[in-house]
Write a structure and sequence with these properties.
The mean pLDDT is 80. By secondary structure, this protein is mostly helical. The chain folds into 2 domains: 57 residues, no CATH class; 32 residues, no CATH class. Helices cover 49% and strands 0% of the residues.
């Protein structure tokens, strides 16, 4: 999740697996949800269970890489990406898409 932006369908599928496990456990028998998922995924200090929202987590992990790019511009890994994909422009003005799994 830290390298790839997951599509909405992936988030829904993963969320469905998590909700089924929370409400049903290992059983195939349907059980009613006692509260909304939005309430369950709140932090504990806000009255929730503290289950992480995977869509927000995915976005945060991707933003972490952008932060590392701005904090470590002299690192070898960034120099390689810059030489291959950025062509002298900044990260935010680059028009390169789909060049590699990382990009």
């Amino acid at each position: 999740m830290s390298f790839y932006w997951l599509q909405e369908g992936v988030h829904k599928k993963m969320g469905g697996i998590r909700t089924n496990f929370l409400w049903q456990g290992n059983e195939e028998k349907f059980r009613y949800h006692m509260t909304k998922w939005k309430m369950v995924s709140r932090p504990k200090d806000h009255g929730g269970v503290g289950i992480i929202n995977i869509k927000i987590m995915n976005e945060c992990l991707l933003v972490k890489w952008i932060w590392k790019i701005h904090q470590e511009p002299d690192e070898l890994w960034f120099k390689l990406i810059k030489a291959k994909y950025l062509d002298g422009c900044s990260f935010f003005t680059s028009k390169t898409k789909g060049g590699s799994q990382f990009w």
